[in-house]
Amino acid sequence: MIWGASTGGLPLHRAKQTGLNMIEINGVAHVILSVSRWSQCRPFYEQLLTFLGLTQTFAGEDMIYFIGGRTAVGISKCDPAFENQRFVQNSVGLHHVSFRARSREDVDALHTYLLEIDARIVHRPENGPWAPG
């Protein structure tokens, strides 16, 4: 259910009934991440996104693209001018991307997989109040 300032604090279905002019999105079509260190990042994301059940639908020289369910993720090589920059989570731009798993067992399996491939873990898996279920 969607609530917020744009709906006057009403659930979306009630906001529509009251005549507020809006649409309801059907999800996020894709997220594209630009990465530095392309030669290291590309194989990492190819392995990770395949492990998550996404299918690679495009493999170009500077971009890869995966689709799974109703979600698509692209990884692209950053502009050479930014090759020496690194991601800063609280800077302007994307804060993080979070995937929804079907079960806690899937979350734990992913965590184990990431440890096995020596991925940098920022936060261990945890139950939180943000989007339960």
Structure description:
- This protein is of the alpha+beta class.
- The protein has three helices and four strands, in the order αβαβββα.
- The chain has helices spanning 12-17, 38-51, 104-116, and strands at residues 30-35, 55-59, 63-68, 71-77.
- The protein has a four-stranded mixed beta sheet, covered by helices on one side.
- The protein is globular and about 55 Å long.
In summary, what is this structure?
Helix content is 25%, strand content 18%. The protein is an alpha+beta fold.
What would the keywords be for this entry?
133 residues; alpha+beta; 2,3-Dihydroxybiphenyl 1,2-Dioxygenase, domain 1; four-stranded mixed β-sheet; 3 helices; globular
Write the layout of secondary structure elements.
Blueprint: H1 12-17, E1 30-35, H2 38-51, E2 55-59, E3 63-68, E4 71-77, H3 104-116
Parallel strand pairs: 1-4
Antiparallel strand pairs: 2-3, 3-4
Helix segment tally: 3
Indicate the percent of residues in helices: 10-25%
Main pleated-sheet profile:
4 strands, mixed
Order of helices and strands: HEHEEEH
Number of strands: 4
What is the molecular shape?
globular
Strand order of the largest sheet: 1-4-3-2
